[in-house]
Design a protein that fits this description.
This protein is mainly alpha-helical. The chain folds into 2 domains: about 45 residues, no CATH class; about 130 residues, no CATH class. It has a two-stranded antiparallel ribbon. α4 runs antiparallel to α8 and α8 crosses α9. It starts with a helix and ends in an 8-residue tail after the last helix. The N terminus is likely disordered.
Length: about 260
């Protein structure tokens, strides 16, 4: 009886020790990517050591890492815009079955050739697209000062999204070039002692060609309106502006101030 109990205890000890060894050797789930890991990935790509494979053992960790990937700095703003212009559209077909190996040059999916105006519901206003690209280029851009004008002259384009993106980028540049002139005039007003938060909105309103345009007059196109505004902004004379003029303007404070 005693020998039988000894065998049972010995067997239990073996099972216990085996379990401890397996627990020690079992791979631990890697922690989500941290700031250091993101920098390491950027360094590997910069050194042309891509592709880089990141392995996870749980879906939750993979989701956390995917969120960290959004901060990876792997392309310039110009490159990102170029990619966006190339891939704009909705996926209408996926041509590669799940799990199949692919190589460079294989067609993975097909996009539709819908025009920008078809997505009017998603975009809400055409001005929002142009202003969004302005903010992408200049985060402290004061879009609120220009929205009343763009809302009147900007319109959805009857072009496929890829071509429309190119037009939008050109329009955003026109607005930003105008903004450069307006900023210069705002600084001139500040030099005269005017420190109102409405300075940029005031200057934009003063050079707005639509503000006092007769209702029966034909509408101005985007290029016409922004061209006239830029010319007027260049001719704007800060020396002729009085504090009373600024007080009467009202409006929303400049976002960039």
């Amino acid at each position: 009886m005693r020998a039988h109990l000894t065998q049972i205890v010995a067997g239990l000890l073996v099972l216990l020790l085996t379990g401890l060894v397996e627990a020690q050797e079992a791979p631990k789930d890697p922690p989500p990517l941290g700031e250091l890991d993101v920098l390491r990935l950027e360094k590997l790509v910069a050194e042309d050591k891509a592709p880089v494979y990141v392995v996870h053992f749980t879906q939750a960790d993979a989701a956390d890492s995917a969120q960290s990937f959004t901060s990876l700095n792997l392309a310039s703003r110009e490159e990102k815009n170029a990619v966006a212009a190339e891939i704009a559209g909705k996926v209408v077909a996926i041509d590669v079955p799940e799990g199949r190996r692919v190589e460079a040059g294989h067609v993975l999916a097909r996009l539709d050739d819908a025009t920008e105006e078809i997505y009017a519901l998603e975009f809400e206003e055409p001005a929002f697209i142009t202003l969004g690209l302005c903010y992408e280029e200049r985060p402290r851009f004061s879009g609120g000062a220009y929205h009343p004008v763009l809302k009147r002259v900007d319109e959805f384009l009857k072009q496929p999204l890829r071509a429309a993106m190119t037009v939008r980028q050109k329009r955003a540049k026109v607005v930003l070039d105008l903004d450069n002139v307006v900023i210069r005039q705002v600084e001139a007003l500040k030099a005269k002692g005017m420190t109102s938060p409405y300075l940029k909105s005031f200057v934009v309103a003063r050079v707005n060609p639509i503000r006092f345009r007769p209702k029966e007059a034909p509408p101005l196109s985007f290029d016409e309106a922004l061209g006239r505004m830029t010319t007027a902004a260049e001719k704007f004379n800060p020396d002729k502006i009085r504090l009373d003029d600024l007080a009467k303007s009202g409006g929303a404070p400049d976002e960039g101030e």
